[in-house]
Amino acid sequence: MAGEWATVRLGELCDFRGGSVFKPALQGQPSGRFPFVKVSDMNLPANAVRIQDSNNWVSEADLQELRARPFPCGTVVFAKIGEALRQNRLRQIVRETIVDNNMMGAVPRTDRIDPRFFYYALSKFDFSDIAQGTALPYLTVSSLSALSLEVPPADEQRAIAHILGTLDDKIELNRRMNETLEAMARALFKSWFMDFDPVRAKAEGRDPGLPKHLADLFPDAFEESELGEIPAGWSIRRIEEIAERVGMGPFGSSIKVETFVSEGVPVISGQHLRGFMLEDSTFNHITVDHAKRLKSANVERGDVVFTHAGNIGQVAYIPENSRYECYVISQRQFFMRCNRMHVTPRFIALYFKSPEGQHQLLANASSSGVPSIARPVTYLRSIQLTIPPKQVIDMFEELVRSMHLRFERNLDESRTLASMRDTLLPKLISGELRVRDAERIVETV
Prior knowledge:
The chain is of the alpha+beta class. Helices cover 37% and strands 20% of the residues. The protein is globular, with a radius of gyration of 25 Å.
């Protein structure tokens, strides 16, 4: 290691302080002056390092009621108590933010350390090693402050942060591009299959604004159905009529922490269902033999997976180029295997991501105790939706396929960038790898 690096206690580089109690009456506001981040908000898209948004916001007036002091931009936040602490997940905030009292913030002293370098440097620690308590581990300011860090000169801090930050910036750009691509697919789905815009335009004698070969696929009239007015010639079908199979995850006792192995069949949980396409990120695994014993809970490419307990309303499909051929769903999931003669996985996933689809999916939900969908398999089979002729679905698939291929390429690139970042990070932070050598590696991407 270079002789210019100095050993410094974290207490000299930052100020640690806990978060604020979040009154239930103030939760759930979709906008406001300050984001209020809870431990659950740390479940960001795979490979992300910065908190860009929140499920809860508070106003200036709320801030006074909470008696909360916002953390400044650049603060590194993390769980300070419970099982989430063991996950050692760190995030950096990009605006003034309030955090929950189950979390803690490390505010870097910018005269001593570069904030971006500080985030990456903190990742070398496993905070669970210094946690106190057994049943409910927790962190203290004194134990965190006593940790030591090797710190290079300011110019080298900035250079290291630039290298690692460049990779993370590209990952974030890919994430935003994918949000745009997903929004485009959702907008087209809504126009064609929820609002019936082309049919409505033709019925009113207006130009539907589509090439003739597309416009000709849509009728110019509506007809009455069990679900109200739908395009003439389209049908109302139950999920059981358009599915090859609908199945449940295993009993909770079938998959336990002690059954996980380093390699094998990946287990899908809620964190993998945040988008409309399965997030092929980090998984727990069980053995192939164990997965065979849970055959009824095995899912494959093309299956659509739902959450029926906990964070209900999640739905995503497994793409054709997924990392694995087979997965096992957890006890909180259930799934649908589409009959491709009638519908496609993309069509079903986009439907249940829509407001109408979410309403249908959650109509049989209970909010007492852990939120859950009652009799999820039976209920899903009974749901009715409007199904267009297969040629219309096929044309929709053709139009959105290129979007989703780009989406998947972005995901693949982000995984590659994250792998490079995770390889370079400990070597740069320890001084094992020099900045010039790391720059040459990054230039090859």
